[in-house]
Amino acid sequence: MAAPVLEIADLHIQIDDKPILDGLTLTVRGGEVHAIMGPNGTGKTSLAQTLMGHPRYAVTGGAVRLDGQDLLAMKPDQRARQGLFLAMQYPSEISGVTTANFLRAALNACRADGSNIPLKEFRDELDRVMQFLEMDPKFANRYLNEGFSGGEKKRNEILQMLMLKPRIAILDEIDSGLDIDAIKVVAKGVNSLKGPDFGALVITHYQRILDYVEPDFVHIMVDGRIVKSGRADLAEELDKKGYEWVRSELVRTGTVEES
Fold first, then answer.
1. Other CB atoms within 10 Å distance of the CB of residue 212
2. Which is it for the CA torsion 76, 53, 58, 67, positive or negative?
3. Among 83, 154, 170, 197, which is most exposed with the fewest C-beta within 10 angstroms?
4. Would you call 40 exposed, middle or buried from its count of C-beta atoms within 10 A (0-12, 13-18, 19+)?
5. Which H, E and C letters describe 1-18, residue by residue?
6. Residue 23, SS3 per DSSP
7. pTM metric for this prediction
8. How far is CA 155 from CA 8, 10, 64, 255, in A?
9. Does position 29 have pLDDT exceeding 60, yes or no?
């Protein structure tokens, strides 16, 4: 199978007639880690939700393709079966459904041949991944995210990613609220999938997670579009100078109007 390619071309979206994204263009290929950074309210989470098919976000222009197929024409479950994964900023709690049952159902839904994964094979892999992520095995039998701390919920998102093995993963502020030890574990999970069959889009406010998940490309979003791209050192520069430096540079060059 060819390496995955997520192509976002001149994407415009709005919520309740309010423009959010303004012509965003980006391509993520297998073997690449892209980081998107930007101030609050610039559209980073809106981009993630739109890519996964949240109905609140109306696409008013542009195109998105995954492996050459029209992603915007797919329902959210079809996008997941195509190999797209979203680790959410605020994972939902689902009472009455254990983490293990949730994951087995998700795996079975994504199996191309329509067959269910054998129970022993599933449990062995789940045990292995949970041990790798330093998770208490008891979490497998607890209701999904119910009573989990913020850090436990984020680690559970990475557990889901490692079990499902997506082609393209979107990590929406997976580092928010985590201490350094938890960030290292989350990063270990992301890094374990690195390779030509996996691409990642890491959305974050801070440079610190990029110390552990080294990006191939860093993009800065302002006012719903990418205004500056570079390598990992761009994140380091941004961490030192802050977002006001970016905006002042954009105003100086006429890229954005002074507010």
1. 16
2. negative
3. 197
4. exposed
5. CCCCEEEEEEEEEEECCE
6. strand
7. 0.92
8. 28, 33, 28, 38
9. yes
H or E element at residue 233:
helix 232-241
Could you tell me the pLDDT band of residue 131, with boundaries at 50, 70 and 90? very high
**47-58 residue pLDDT tens:** 999 999 999 999
* Spatial distance between the Cα atoms of 82 and 44, rounded to a whole number of angstroms: 22
pLDDT above 70 (res 252):
no
What is the fold of 5-96+167-253?
Rossmann fold (3.40.50)
Alpha helices in 111-209 (DSSP H): 119-132, 150-164, 180-193
Q: Report the DSSP pairing between strands 199-204 and 58-66.
A: unpaired
- As a whole number, the mean pLDDT across the chain is 92
- Using CA atoms, how far residue 173 sits from 22, 29, 37, 150, 208, in Å, is 21, 20, 10, 12, 12
Residue 259 has pLDDT above 60, yes or no: no
> Tokens representing 192?
């374990």
217-222 and 33-37 strand pairing: parallel
CA distance 163 to 97: 17
Sort 97 into a burial class: Cβ within 10 Å, 0-12 / 13-18 / 19+.
Answer: middle
Q: Which residue shows structure tokens 């790798």?
A: 132
pLDDT at 217: 97
